[in-house]
Amino acid sequence: MADAASRLKNLFELLLGAPLPVRVRAWDGSQAGPPGAPALVLRNRRAVRRLLFKPGELGLARAWVAGDLDIDGDLYTALDLISGLVWERGEGARSRAALLRDPEVRAALRGLVRLSGLPLPPAPPPEEVRRHRGHLHTKRTDRRAVSHHYDVGNDFYEIVLGPSMVYSCAYWETPGGTLEDAQRDKLELVCAKLALTPGQRLLDVGCGWGSMAIHAAREHGVRVVGITLSQEQAAYARKRVADEGLTDRIEIRVQDYRDVGDGPYDAISSIGMAEHVGAERYLEYAEDLYALLRPGGRLLNHQIARRPQRDESTYHVDEFIDAYVFPDGELAPLGTTVTQLERAGFEVRDVESIREHYGLTLRRWVARLEADWARAARLAGPGRARVWRLYMAACALAFERNSIGVNQVLAVRALDSGDSGMPLRARTWN
């Protein structure tokens, strides 16, 4: 079974209907494909079985996470080139059914079955989420999903995020700035949009490791309640609060946003949390936050958005992200988010896209992970570290290509008189 690489390359090109843009390197030492291009490395026959039994994005993801498949060369270039390898994607791609009717493709597939060894489907890597029956976005399933993503280990996240410990899009003055400065500027931008003043109460929904709560209390003199569903995050945040001497101004709770009942608050920040809420719960989320705000209070909702489709019924969740990164996470178009906030009673006063900033942020996170790879893999496990490297690099490209975006939506709960409390020229934060 020598020259497995040529056989793999030929099949990929049959499926794509175009020359393969990357090299293929197989476990038998063979190589095929354009010289100088990044190489898709299949380390064993199991990689082929994963692609045969689950063709498309999930099969590729399983092979990557398990270490059966790797990339030799620049990761971003390789991801850009191989994005068309997923069968279902691409305007000119033939359907799977049409491909399987092609005698040449069927012959190549039979050869790959022989090449792959025993025709048994490999078990998914242990990092893959095991699905449970029942409704999405109950308090129980949300706790489980959040734990999967955030309870990876605080030491691991320190490697990726750096001293700021902020796990959301930074706000860059220049591409050459530091990650710490850009994250501080993002937190300050949120505080400025909320117009925080000493003595006010701030609810930070999805408070993470406490960075927003600490910044708002220390720099603006507000009292903060931060809520998270992650036990590990809460423990870490409480220690940071104590080390800063801010325990009299900051309370960190392990609490679902649906269980907060001690309003009213003067302001609410929700930074990178609403992606976990889900479409069927989003109006409830907006209504709950509206009820927790005093009249005249402001909400800053910082959220990733997908592009709307002509036919929304055809939208499907990214298989890799759903299985390995954000279980049950859902992205909505910006217009949908604004509509739901307004349905809940909010008046949306400002929308700012900071899409390019997230590409810069993600590339810094990937660089930090790669620079301390051995320790990161030891702390979180090699499979988990590979998940984070792939998803962050792929997301950086998605933001840069304008496939997805991220927006800060500033909304107010107007007074009964209709007064928003906003100045005539509000964008003084710029």
UniProtKB/TrEMBL annotation:
<dbReference type="GO" id="GO:0032259">
    <property type="term" value="P:methylation"/>
</dbReference>
<dbReference type="InterPro" id="IPR050723">
    <property type="entry name" value="CFA/CMAS"/>
</dbReference>
<dbReference type="Pfam" id="PF02353">
    <property type="entry name" value="CMAS"/>
</dbReference>
<keyword id="KW-0808">Transferase</keyword>
<feature type="region of interest" description="Disordered">
    <location>
        <begin position="120"/>
        <end position="142"/>
    </location>
</feature>
<feature type="domain" description="Polyketide synthase-like methyltransferase">
    <location>
        <begin position="156"/>
        <end position="389"/>
    </location>
</feature>
<keyword id="KW-0443">Lipid metabolism</keyword>
<dbReference type="InterPro" id="IPR029063">
    <property type="entry name" value="SAM-dependent_MTases_sf"/>
</dbReference>
<comment type="similarity">
    <text>Belongs to the CFA/CMAS family.</text>
</comment>
<dbReference type="GO" id="GO:0008168">
    <property type="term" value="F:methyltransferase activity"/>
</dbReference>
<feature type="compositionally biased region" description="Basic residues">
    <location>
        <begin position="131"/>
        <end position="142"/>
    </location>
</feature>
<keyword id="KW-0489">Methyltransferase</keyword>
<dbReference type="InterPro" id="IPR003333">
    <property type="entry name" value="CMAS"/>
</dbReference>
<protein>
    <submittedName>
        <fullName>Cyclopropane-fatty-acyl-phospholipid synthase family protein</fullName>
        <ecNumber>2.1.1.-</ecNumber>
    </submittedName>
</protein>
<keyword id="KW-0949">S-adenosyl-L-methionine</keyword>
<dbReference type="InterPro" id="IPR020803">
    <property type="entry name" value="MeTfrase_dom"/>
</dbReference>
